[in-house]
Amino acid sequence: MKLDITTLDGAGAGSVELDEAIFGLEPRPDLLQRMVRWQLAKRRAGTHAVQNRSDVNRTRKKLYKQKGTGNARHGAASAPQFRGGGRAFGPVVRDHSHDLPKKVRALALKHALSAKLKSSTLIVVDDVKLADGKTKALAERFGKLGLSSALIIGGAEVDVNFGRAARNLPQIDVLPVQGINVYDILRREKLVLTRAAVDALEARFK
Q1: The CA-based dihedral angle spanning residues 24, 26, 27, 30, taken in that order and rounded to the nearest 10 degrees
Q2: Which of 192, 188, 187, 162 is nearest to 177 (CA)?
Q3: In which order are the strands placed within the sheet that holds 172-175?
Q4: How far apart are the C-alpha atoms of 125 and 195, rounded to whole Å?
Q5: Which residues are in coiled coils (predicted)?
């Protein structure tokens, strides 16, 4: 399938032939959901923790004798029901990540790209390079292209001036092609690929 290529100024720059095996799939929400869940779980630190009754520095001596007082049967003062005692069933340090096959992750990325193309929110630009890193000038260009919420994927390296100008714009993310991922694609309204990014993606999935 063919898709028109534009420039940052909104002018035409020819067209590009997109691979049907990457951009022409019927999007599967279940795959996208699995991939997003895997990404969000993997980036969780898992360092949340509390003091349980074995961690609290309190005496382990029995509060009073077992029988004859008329009170409830209690042991150490570090029990959760006492003020200053340990936390019952609190979070512990653990790894939240889980396994997802590599082939499933690759397929999910293809489906995310196909979903953007099917919804007409995929834009291919010739290149993303600026003579200076001025945010105001770049915002005006984005206004002409209708980019208010977008993920922009450059080549192997993002132009320094372009990255500097775009980092102050809200809801605009810029990544090199090796950093493309399903979560960032889906969280922005539009996906902008450079010609170099399209070539790199097609070479990656061959």
Answers
A1: -140
A2: 192
A3: 12-17, 2-6, 122-125, 190-194, 150-153, 172-175
A4: 6
A5: none
With the CA atoms of 160, 163, 167 and 170 taken in that order, what torsion angle do they form, in degrees rounded to the nearest 10? 160
Cα(122)–Cα(106) distance, integer angstroms: 19
Are 152 and 128 within 8 A, CB to CB? yes
Instruction: State the angle between helix axes of 102-118 and 29-42 in degrees (0 to 180), rounded to the nearest 10.
Output: 120
The rounded Cα 171 to chain-centroid distance in angstroms is: 13
Q: Which CATH architecture has domain 2-45+97-204?
A: 3-Layer(aba) Sandwich (3.40)
Phi (first) and psi of residue 159, to 5 degrees: -55, 135
Task: Specify the residue for token string 């003579």.
Answer: 131
0.85 surpassed by pTM: no
User: For residue 119, which amino acid is it?
Assistant: S
pLDDT (tens digit, 9 = 90+) per residue, 127-136? 888 888 889 9
Counting every residue written for the chain, the total comes to: 206
Amino acid at 170: P
DSSP 161-191: HHHHHHTTSTTEEEE-GGG--HHHHHHSSEE
Cα angle 32, 36, 38 (rounded to 5 degrees) comes to 115
Site of tokens 């539009």: 190
Q: How far apart are CA 18 and CA 21, in angstroms?
A: 9
